[in-house]
Amino acid sequence: MIAEAGHYALILALALALIQSTVPMVGAQLRDTALMNVARSTALAQFLFCGLSFLALTALYVASDFSVANVFQNSHSAKPLLYKITGVWGNHEGSMLLWVAILAFFGALVATFGNNLPLSLRAHVLAVQGWIAAAFYVFILATSNPFLRMAQAPLEGRDLNPVLQDIGLAVHPPMLYLGYVGFSISFSFAVAALIEGRIDAAWARWVRPWTLVAWIFLTLGIAMGSYWAYYELGWGGWWFWDPVENASLMPWLSGTALLHSAIVMEKRNALKVWTVLLAILTFSLSLLGTFLVRSGVLTSVHAFATDPSRGVFILVILCLFIGGSLTLYLWRASSLKQGGLFAPISREGALVLNNLFLTTACATVFVGTLYPLALEMLTGDKISVGAPFFNLTFGPLFVPLLLAVPFGPMLAWKRGDIRGVAQRLLAAGIAALLTIALVWAWTTGGAALAPLAIGLAVFVILGAITDIAERIMLFRQPFATSLRRAVGLPRAAWGTSFAHAGLGVALIGIVCETTWNTEFIGTLKPNDVAKLAGYELTLKEITQRQGPNYRESIARFRITQNGDEIGEMVPSKRNFSARQTATTEAALLSRGASQLYISLGDDTTTGAVAVRMYHKPLVLMIWWGPVLMALGGVLSLSDRRLRVGAPKPAKASRALQAAE
Amino acid sequence: MRRIAVSVLAFALLASAPAHAVQPDEIMQDPAKEARARNLSKELRCMVCQNQSIDDSDAPLARDLRILVRERLATGESDKQVLDFLVARYGEFVLLRPRLEWHTLLLWLLTPLVLIGGAFALWWHNRRRNERSNAESVTTLTADEEARIERLLGAQDKPN
């Protein structure tokens, strides 16, 4: 009953999306207010029914209704409630349902908070959202229906893949989807602007908060996924240049570029054509990511060929939306008028430079991800493109970019004074050089690049602080004045500083972890001691334990440093009965930003266990960086300018009446 | 999206008997050679896994390859000889960093091409625009006028 209701709700949502995608367009053509307003009500109703459908599937999972094929394949009655709920999106069908539910959610947000948009723009934006939604509803209903019943209901389910039975699954995919799908709003705005043939600074002011929201979620989602892989997969890696990761990195890179070019458009009314193109590309890359992951084309080109129904379907959606929007762009972009002249050395110039490097970085990830696929399809040659390739091509791009980061926000609009800025950044530069010298001296004979990279990171962080210090005239005015200026400083300025400093923080973490990571690989018996980076790790005991749906063997380690006990670490290995699979649960001990990491291997001979131990210096900074960036995004989002939004014509006219 | 990677990776390594990447018994006596072996391992793909190096992978094949690499190093071969041997045996697929050849030219050259092409396009665009604005001979504003505009714009930016 619930399954059928959920299925039916999804069909209704499709019907509503079809209305939403057509009627408002007609209304905008005829300038009929009532027809244009249909967009708003259908968007809200579509969210309602899509949400109901999602709730129905969740209810089926919570109730462990194994007559539904999807629940049977991915759930187990003994699974803890949290993983029953998160299991809803731990599979293809459910995650696609989450995808459209979030899409509908964003549509509803535009419908609710878009009151200050011109009516025809809102109608167009929601109509484009309706097209995307309709395409994905058809996809789900035709090829990936999560509500299919089985003729004979089994007694027990097959359980969720044990690796996914983790809090990470509760947070990571929804975050990532909020990011991916959030970019659909900027896409819809861009397409609507092309359809209307009109675009101005106010447009950028509407688009920027939506892009920012999506970007914040995507940043956190990627960071979260990276940390999850770090502790769950058991070998302490945090980024693998896996095509699936690349699929989320590409929209992030172009989304970051979009965020910056939208600033130029909003403030200076320039880069319009480019911003619209970036908005289209960013969501196209999100769609591409969905295709890469959902079609199975990544696992093997042949897996895609044997069951192509889903893959071909998404490929068609991909071609329709990307091809369609780019065609529209080529046709209409010339009608968008350029404005706002600026010198190459200026804030705009710096933001253009940022866009150049981010776009190139994005293109690098794109070619690295798709080249092997294309080559195999065209010639049959199989090549691999992995971390060593990206370290050589992607990494160096960030050196000039990061060098330029502190300069950007301190340059004036239109025509900047680079020597003046350089003078103000002198202190940061000297501190960076000192850092390089110190790190070099401290790690004699080590990797030569690491001290340089750390110096660069310090320059970025201090540059961000200098920017704020300059704005509040720290040390040049009495402290009270500086404090008052700090409070009065636009939140967006704080946001910029936090986000840029986050880059530096992450870079320090990345460099330290990859350069000075130490490890111990060995077999230990109880009371054996392993020495690692000045810590002594003593294996106390190995025990067995029964969990809700698994058995685990647990090793207990006592950690001491110079004889002082500083903690206990309890790594384990779990065997899941339903799937006959095992997971390693690594134990982590944080010391400041550094971590000790232990993961268990096999029990070798009786009573001994193979272990891998790592000391990862400053590893946590890798994730603090993105958190700082996201915090910067939130600060920027809370800026009065964005909350107040664009000029409201309705209010303005009311004010005029009052004046009469 | 990552969770798919997680699950696929997990399947790849759990389907086989759980073992551990770089096991204690594999480590070479000579630390310098072991370090070289580890560096080489990071450049080599575990061919039954999804996008994992043999240094990371738990699969039996990865273990075989790690031992093979160490055996060749023990006989005194150079890094390049070891890689050549593996490429001859398993094909170019085993390298995580493809060699620069005709069929990988675009892969390697795209990044510099985009960067240089983009920079050139920006330069050209800027020059053309300058020429155009010179031709139109736009009268520039005086400092006073600019300050006044900034004030007006600033006032407009403030709420209500």
Pick out its properties:
heterodimer, A: 660 residues, alpha+beta, 4-stranded antiparallel β-sheet, disordered C terminus, B: 160 residues, mainly alpha, 0% strand
Could you write a compact summary of the structure shown?
The complex is a heterodimer of chains A (660) and B (160). Chain A is α+β, with helices and mostly antiparallel strands and 660 residues long.
General description of the model:
The complex is a heterodimer of chains A (660) and B (160). Chain A is globular and about 80 Å long. In chain A, helix 8 (201-232) runs antiparallel to helix 20 (621-637), helix 9 (243-268) packs antiparallel against helix 13 (347-379) and helix 16 (426-442) runs antiparallel to helix 17. By secondary structure, chain A is α+β, with helices and mostly antiparallel strands. In chain A, the strands form 2 sheets. In chain A, strands 2, 3, 4, 5, 6 and 7 form a 6-stranded antiparallel beta sheet that branches. Chain A is 65% helix and 11% strand. The termini of chain A are far apart. In chain A, strand 2 and strand 3 form a beta hairpin. Residues 645-660 of chain A have low confidence and may be disordered. The longest helix of chain A is centred in the middle third of the chain and has 33 residues, at 347-379. By secondary structure, chain B is mainly alpha-helical. Chain B is 63% helix and 0% strand. Chain B is built from 6 helices and no strands. Chain B has helices spanning 2-15, 31-43, 60-74, 79-90, 105-136, 143-157. In chain B, helix 2 packs across helix 3 (60-74). The longest helix of chain B has 32 residues, at 105-136. Chain B is elongated and about 80 Å long. The two termini of chain B are 44 Å apart. Chains A and B meet through helix 7, helix 8, helix 9, helix 13 and helix 14 of A and helix 1 and helix 5 of B.
